[in-house]
Design goal:
By secondary structure, the protein is of the alpha/beta class. It is built from four helices and six strands.
Length: 132
């Protein structure tokens, strides 16, 4: 890459995202290296998917307990395929609207896909590319 970066961030999780935004807001050119999905663990496998499923479970159990409050809601059985589709949609929405759009629209932030590793105190290798 021809651009000179003030900071190179390995990963794109919540903390990496906050650091990139803060650096960019201060006029520092940022390279974010991500080998998998933007957003890291929280967005893709942790916080967002688990909270989506927990929310649906709470709705289901509230409907089942409705008869305790004089409501007969016939909660039925959970539909695992639909729940997984809702979880997937929630993850994709957060990833695309909160991470991908903001990162790709910021002129101070570049995203490079691949596995990054330090090869010296001042160099990172991503695939065959060496970034000073």
């Amino acid at each position: 890459m021809a651009d000179a970066y003030g900071i190179v961030i390995l990963g794109s999780g919540t903390t990496a995202f906050a650091a990139a935004r803060q650096a960019a807001a201060n006029g520092i050119k940022v390279l974010m290296v991500e080998q998998s999905h933007l957003g890291g663990t929280c967005v893709n496998w942790g916080c967002v998917p688990s909270k989506t499923l927990i929310d649906k479970a709470e709705l289901y159990f509230a409907a089942r307990r409705g008869r305790n409050w004089g409501l007969n809601l016939h909660a039925g059985e959970p539909d695992a395929a639909t729940l997984m589709q809702l979880k997937k949609r929630a993850v994709e929405t957060v990833r695309e609207t909160h991470y991908q759009q903001e990162l790709t629209s910021n002129p101070y932030i570049d995203v490079l896909r691949g596995h990054g590793r330090f090869i010296s105190p001042h160099e990172i290798q991503v695939g065959a590319e060496i970034i000073p």
